[in-house]
Design brief:
The complex is a heterodimer of chains A (235) and B (333). Chain A has 235 residues and is of the alpha/beta class. Chain A contains 11 helices and 10 strands. Chain A has a single domain, classed as Rossmann fold, CATH 3.40.50. Chain B has a two-stranded antiparallel ribbon with strand order 1-2. In chain B, helix 2 runs parallel beside helix 7 and helix 2 crosses helix 13. The chains are: A alpha/beta (235), B mainly alpha (333).
Chain lengths: 235, 333
């Protein structure tokens, strides 16, 4: 479904992604794990066109999207939930969610999608007129995910979806991600915590200093000796 | 679907327009009409600037360039080619809009707002320097005169509509129509789905971008539209006052005044720039005797506003329920 091959990204002279290749199959949940500065956020932003790529190729459903501008991503079936939610703070919950269906192709289906999203996220209906910035972090994350689903993506990308959330909210979001995936939507997310990332994904990639150093099935990754030694601190 | 007007807002706004429209029926004194014209002129200017800065979130400090270009272009063409000011009102707007696109293009590449402010301000200063030094054509600070005024015409029922310096009523109504045009255009945009996208762009550019909002297109559109209106205002100014100096239309004071109006009235609201423009224009006339100290007073007002009621008069009003619907929905943005 998504195929990134030989991706190099530079911020000025500093190269942050090196020859990176990852894949997401249809219906899969894939986690990208790595410490701060390993390039996981840049990878997601590069896929979505928010960061210009230096070389390499990004293909979505067989189509080369390497140089596609960010605002066209929703129309091909891909949607990004940005790091730290990035809701529109002065708007209401409903306005935020409706903006998710802003792209031309999504407007006609706004009604059905809204019903679908409201079923997954009852909070949207309950708080529809609340100002987004007055919600808790976890609630905002739910609105952000709901907004991301309004364009009807087949692949949902989530940049650090658990960042700064309470343990209770983290498990609520995990449950939601599973529910979304059950409906056939592939998910690619990144996360710093080994358990949270590989424990909740079909497959995972381990990044270090902008390079993929390890890949495999989620549970395998959890059992991997290197991962255990370096990230889980067991001997 | 988005931002349906509240009834209080519609009623208040309609009453305000009716009051403006009836003003010349009761007040014939040409000085008061002149102040009324200036109020609406600056309200239109402030609304247009606010479209880019308040709603779009692009901090531009160079809109006086569009005002000056609109004024000088219109004046010079009317003097040298004898073209009707009626046509020039539109053409000056288009010229300013093209210039707006020209300056917006580099601005779009800058993400840091202080730099946007400096680039636009420098651009305006270049225009000012050129116009004040190109004395053969513009006469510089000596002032450009001999500008044609609007041709008179006659309307059924009303009779002759003449534009002379002694009769300000026609100018008043022309400005009123321009002001109403700016108001309704801004309202129409901000209440459509485009308005929501523009606010989204201001609040989180990346999020808006990744949801399918073509940020570049919107920024260019806002800049061009805003420059168009300010250019039209400049053209009106030229054919109304019939004398132009670079310090009157292109000085940095012009944009400071507009910024002060918007801040005092309330950034991010529809009513804010209008309230601020009326307040400060009237105050400015009242303080005319203070000469250069006026800038000091404006500065103090901005400071006090930012410190004590950052939302501006429009939001202060809504808190006191005085302006009612002005604060709701669109105004909140």
């Amino acid at each position: 479904m998504l195929e990134v091959s030989g991706l190099n990204v530079k911020y000025g002279d500093a190269q942050v992604l090196w020859d990176m290749s990852i894949k997401v199959g249809a219906g899969e949940v894939v986690a990208v794990m790595g410490p701060n500065g390993s390039g996981k956020s840049t990878l997601l932003k590069a896929i979505c066109g928010l960061v210009a790529i230096h070389s390499g190729q990004i293909k979505f459903e067989g189509k080369d999207i390497s140089s596609m501008p960010a605002h066209n991503m929703t129309s091909i079936g891909m949607s990004l939930v940005l790091e730290r939610r990035r809701l529109f703070p002065s708007m209401t919950v409903m306005e935020n969610v409706m903006l998710g269906a802003y792209a031309k192709h999504a407007r006609d289906k706004t009604k059905e999608r809204l019903a679908w999203v409201e079923e997954l996220f009852p909070i949207i209906r309950e708080r529809r007129d609340q100002i987004a910035s007055r919600m808790s972090g976890g609630e905002q994350q739910m609105v952000a995910i709901a907004r991301g689903l309004m364009s009807g993506p087949r692949l949902l990308l989530m940049d650090e979806p658990f960042l700064g959330l309470s343990p209770k909210m983290v498990s609520a979001i995990v449950t939601l991600v599973q529910a979304i995936n059950k409906r056939g939507i592939a998910v690619l997310f990144n996360e710093q915590n080994v358990q949270l990332s590989f424990g909740n994904a079909h497959r995972g990639y381990l990044l270090e200093s902008g390079r993929v150093v390890l890949e495999g099935a989620g549970l395998e990754m959890l059992q991997n000796e290197t991962v255990k030694r370096v990230y889980l601190g067991s001997h | 679907m988005f931002g349906a007007p509240t009834r209080t807002f519609s009623v208040n706004f309609a009453l305000f327009l009716v009051a403006l429209a009836l003003f010349p029926v009761f007040v014939r004194d040409s000085y008061y009409l002149h102040v009324g014209i200036l109020c609406m002129l600056f309200a239109s200017f402030a609304l247009s600037w606010h479209l880019v800065t308040g709603y779009g979130g692009l901090k531009t400090f160079g809109h006086q360039a569009f005002f000056g270009i609109g004024a000088y272009f219109s004046a010079l063409v009317s003097i040298h080619f004898g073209i009707s000011p009626w046509l020039l009102l539109l053409v000056a707007g288009i010229v300013a809009a093209i210039l707006g696109l020209l300056i917006a293009t580099p601005v779009l590449r800058i993400r840091s707002m202080p730099h946007v402010a400096i680039v636009t301000l420098s651009f305006a200063e270049i225009i000012r320097a050129v116009i004040s030094n190109w004395r053969d054509v513009t006469r510089g600070e000596l002032g450009l005169w001999g500008i044609r005024t609007f041709e008179s015409f006659s309307l059924p029922l009303i009779g002759a509509v003449s534009f002379t310096s002694t009769d300000k009523v026609s100018f008043y109504y022309l400005m009123f129509l321009l002001f109403a045009l700016v108001c309704f255009t801004v309202l129409a945009i901000m209440r459509s789905q485009y308005g929501l996208a523009i606010i989204a762009m201001r609040e989180s550019e990346n999020a808006a971008d990744s949801l399918g909002v073509n940020v570049v297109k919107y920024k260019l559109f806002l800049f061009a539209l805003s420059a168009f209106f300010v250019g039209v205002c400049g053209s009106f100014y030229a054919h109304y006052l019939l004398i132009l100096t670079p310090s009157a239309v292109l000085h940095i004071e012009v944009i400071i005044l507009v910024i002060a109006m918007t801040l005092v009235g309330g950034v991010g609201t529809f009513a804010g720039p209008i309230i601020g423009a009326f307040l400060l224009t009237i105050l400015g006339e009242w303080l005319r005797g203070f000469g250069d100290y006026r800038m000091l007073i404006y500065g103090t007002m901005i400071l006090l506003c930012v410190m004590f009621f950052p939302g501006g008069v429009a939001k202060l009003g809504s808190r006191l329920r005085e302006f009612g619907g002005f604060s709701a929905r669109v105004a909140r943005r």
